[in-house]
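Good day; I would like, with your permission, to put a structural problem before you. A protein sequence and the structure tokens that stand for its backbone fold form the material at issue. The record follows directly beneath this note:
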Amino acid sequence: MNFSPLFEPVDITTIGLTPEMLHPDQLGSYVMFYNPEETLDIQEAEMAIIGVPESRNSFQNESCSMAPDEIRRQFYQLYKWKSNVRIIDMGNLRIGQMIEDTYEILSDIVADLLENNVIPIILGGSNDLAFANYRGYEKIERVANLVAVDPRFDLGDENQPIRSDAYLNKMVLQQPNFLLNYANIGFQSYMNSPQTAQLMEDLFFETYRVGSVRKSLEEAEPIVRNADMLSIDISAVRRPDAPGCPHASSNGFYGEEICQIAKYAGVSDKLTSFGIYEYDPTLDYSNQTSQLIGHILWYFVEGYINRQHDHLFKNKQDYIQYNVAVSGALDELVFFCSKKTGRWWMLIPIVNLENNVTQHYYLPCSKHDYDMACEDKIPDRWWKAYNKLNH
């Protein structure tokens, strides 16, 4: 793909920094910056940062289009990791004449990066850009699981135009459909109608309230480990920690918690794209939110550097298998624990009634799910996945 007409290149000087201001180990001196006058072999990169200054479909947050360079300014002042990772900053996407053009261009770029095994990191811009990210998977006919860290479900109505708070329905109704599963981490009940919450249940989507996640943050790890793409609406973070968003509230995740979730995403062997949206620099206080987003990105990359590649089950000798008989289950529930990382999976049977053939899906889970099975309870995570895959 020829990237040169699609991007407005950036470098440290365009975001208000200079080479003299930076230590050689700070990220502004370390990250590669795309130069349209030079030949780019995208396969040289492991991650590609894409700024998308687009907010025409935002809900009362037009200034989020100013976010990408503000995020860069803070991120590039952080120090690099102990291990090397090849990151290229593509610059800011030249938005289309119509917003549909922006979606189309961005989805083409995401598709190209995915095919070249490069992880796109999208700096929004408004939350509806997650729809364009998903369409990148659709264009290469790759099934995707989406995890959104968001206080709202952003489902929308099928007859409603796409908007930053109403885009998920467009994914669900897209045909052919490549969205295997959607999970929401951190929703706040009082920000979502009971009807919407019930519809999420009816679709067998996973939803986790912010309070329950905060009580046991490690339970978010298997949710994120099952994702192909992660989308963070910065309003999921409490306003005292991230004031730069008009939709933030006094409740939500703390800064340390959202960084831990980002690290879970990075360390997930399966995750192949990452986006963060809805930051409004005009509302920020002392760069507090842009600094936090810089930290989120830093922890995501640190997680990526520590990937363990234990998700393919190439050698069953690398796992301990546990079979648990549970009342109400037709067969024993089967769990696997990686000897290398201590991470857990459970087998979900997929029954083809036409030929009476059963296949199995390895669903990431936690030891808590195994403990529930040992207490003669079928884990909720198992039930939801079973109903969805056999629906």
